[in-house]
Amino acid sequence: MTCSAAGGKTPTALRTTLKMQKLCTSPLRGEPGLCLMSPPPPECTFIILDKRRWTDSGSEEAQCMIGDVNFFLSDPEDLSLAELEIMIAEPDYRGKGIGKEVTQMMMHYGVAKLGINKFQAKIGLDNEVSISMFKKLHFHQVSVCQVFKEVTLETTVDESLRRRLLRQVGHMTERDYLAARGGRRQAASQAATGAPA
């Protein structure tokens, strides 16, 4: 599974991802609750964890990872445009709606925290499952590149999309990974020593 551009389930890749997440959640001075980086990070990556494994403090952290979702601010002239990328690396988790849910969560995050108003997805022409998922999320085809064998899908953020995202994932809460990780480690330590939680 790739955790970052560096790749792999390595502590270094995870630290890089966590650093980027911290950058993506830092509020801009004078604008509480709004995160418009100056300059914004070129990539925002979130690791997808299996909640059941994560709540089992006996599971190794790397074993909880099932994929990642990213967006890239690839156009320095238009910081409201984000290219989305989703990967469910663990085959047992594919086809269960997880990709759709985390893509909606990432879109909601981008709209609410970074002011994104247009999303793109570049997908291999042979990846019919991903193309179908993005079309269900109201993306439409804007181009096909035969050289790279990929299709570009796009959606513009309007009030209807904002309402859909809010209805689908607005109830979810953002939690600090390092704090949750600390609590998880404490629970594992208490379980190992037999101490009460």
Summarize the structure.
This protein is an alpha+beta fold and 197 residues long. It has helices at 11-25, 51-55, 98-114, 128-136, 159-169, 177-193; strands spanning 43-49, 65-72, 81-88, 118-124, 140-145, 150-156.
List its traits.
single chain, 197 residues, Aminopeptidase, 6-stranded mixed beta sheet, 6 strands, 38% helix, 22% strand
Tell me the layout of helices and strands.
Layout: H1 11-25, E1 43-49, H2 51-55, E2 65-72, E3 81-88, H3 98-114, E4 118-124, H4 128-136, E5 140-145, E6 150-156, H5 159-169, H6 177-193
Parallel strand pairs: 3-4
Antiparallel strand pairs: 1-2, 2-3, 4-6, 5-6
What would you say this structure looks like, in words?
- With 197 residues, the chain is an alpha+beta fold.
- It has one domain: Aminopeptidase (3-Layer(aba) Sandwich).
- The protein has helices spanning 11-25, 51-55, 98-114, 128-136, 159-169, 177-193; strands at 43-49, 65-72, 81-88, 118-124, 140-145, 150-156.
- The protein has a six-stranded mixed sheet.
- Helix 3 crosses helix 5 (159-169).
- The two termini are 33 Å apart.
- Residues 1-12 and 22-40 have low confidence and may be disordered.
Report the count of strand segments.
Answer: 6
**Biggest beta-sheet profile:** 6 strands, mixed
Structure classification: alpha+beta
Strand order of the largest sheet: 1-2-3-4-6-5
Give the count of structural domains.
1
CATH fold name: Aminopeptidase
Quote the beta fraction: 15-25%
Through-space gap between termini: 33 Å
Helix content: 25-40%
Q: Counting H and I runs of at least 4 residues, what is the number of helices?
A: 6
CATH class: Alpha Beta
Order of helices and strands: HEHEEHEHEEHH
Low-confidence stretches: 1-12, 22-40
Q: What is the average per-residue confidence, as pLDDT, rounded to a whole number?
A: 78
CATH architecture heading: 3-Layer(aba) Sandwich
Radius of gyration: 18 Å
